[in-house]
Amino acid sequence: MTTNRLTELFEETSAGVAPPSLAATAWARSRRVRRTRQLLTGAAVAVVIAAVAIPLNAGRPETPPMLSSTVSPSTPPLTTVTSIAANPSRRTIAPLPAAFAIPAGARTLSEHPVQQAVMVAQERAGETDRTLRPLHVLDSAGEWTRIDVGDIVRTRDAGGNEADPLRVASLSPDRRRVAVAQPQALVVVDLPTAKARRFPVPGLNEQVMWWGADTVLVGADGPGVTRVDLATGAISGEPAAVSGWNSAGNSVLGGELAEIVKIDGRNVLRVWEMGSAKPVREMPVDQSGLPPGFAVTEFYGQAVPDGNGRIAVAAWGDRIDDQGREFRGGAQMLIVVDTRNGALRTVLDLGDPLESPRSKACCAVLDWIDDQTVLARTDLEGLVAWTPRNGEVVRVMAGPVDAAVSVRMR
Question: Which residues pair with 271 in a beta bridge?
Fold first, then answer.
């Protein structure tokens, strides 16, 4: 069993358990050393940082405070950091409903084919209930339909651990097909025809993502995927060692696939082109622009591309709040990373781990609504729209959203 699979299983079994917030002496000492070194880089930089720094959670304002990205030309630009408000304002984005609620007795796909979906959802069972919940699609008119074709089962690994098959990247770029990994197979449901195709893909498959409109990449929990060409039915091994656990694919055939992985204890950005056994770019994630008191320790979940050289992804991290309290690994964040140079561009701090404790792996990036807006699922708010450019966060679907979801908004 690989590290990715162990992480995923831990996330599933610990859902609803707030992560610990620890004040580690060694970490605090390293932070003090880091801050001391930053102060020694020059008085001019110190003055700029002091002038723009804003306490992160002071008073929990409705409009999140922001750190300016204007710095001396001789230093890297600061990463913009904003804080989510305690009670974000609400705004509906059609056709998403105002609250997540799949009606009992929803119509079936076999009787009511769907031309185009914006969301696929699979409600979660309880901790002791291993019953597979059906997949439902939300169409462009805001109606829910239950998928009753495909004979979908739970996935499993070599140790017998099971998981629900729906993934963030299951819905196709044209929003007309749903792909789910299955043991020794891939199932693709065509919504307009209400038909399912099953492709023989060797392995205990768990992850899927789309590469263009007609290619699905299927994998387990580690590096390596199998390419399935839906147009021709061809199934082939893929030389690129990209992981479906870390990457969300690309809606453009031939487009790059980006992921963030742990290598020798470091977070490393890798960018792949299909057909190449080596990444076209590989570099450490650059955290040098983060303000004092912040560090990103680990990224998790599929990294969703915007099509313009950026990815959005969830992460755990360290931070110091405005009262001087230190949280090691207990801070949860959403982050935008530049895939051209590995730099953190923007960070959304998801709040005080003591005041608003979140479940382990609370959140997931789902899609880019447009070039400026990230759609994400969080455990406390539901679905939120985050605009990294100005830090605005609005709630677009009230939670809890106790389900795995895949969304395509454009």
Answer: 258, 281
Q: What CATH code is carried by the domain that includes residue 284?
A: 2.120.10.30
The DSSP H or E segment spanning 138 is strand 135-139
Residue numbers of the domain that contains 42? 3-407
pTM assigned to the model: 0.81
Let me know: does 19 contact 316? Beta carbons within 8 Å: yes
Low-confidence residues of the chain: pLDDT under 50:
3, 6, 9-11, 13-74
Rounded to whole angstroms, the Cα distance separating 267 from 257 reads: 17
CA–CA gap between residue 248 and residue 376 (Å, rounded) = 14
Q: Is 23 helix (H, G, I), strand (E, B) or coil?
A: coil
Q: Residue type for 41, please? A: T
Per-residue pLDDT tens for 77-114? Answer: 679 999 999 999 999 999 999 999 999 999 999 999 99
The dihedrals phi and psi of 5, each to the nearest 5 degrees, come to -65, -40
Cβ-count burial 299-315 (b if 16+ within 10 Å, e if not): bbbbbbbbeeebbbbbb
Tokens linked to 23: 């004040």
CA–chain centroid gap for 240, Å, is: 21
In sequence order, the β-bridge partners of residue 107 are 145
User: Beta strand 144-146 with 107-108: parallel, antiparallel or unpaired?
Assistant: parallel
State the total domains in the chain: 1
- H helices of 215-317, where? none
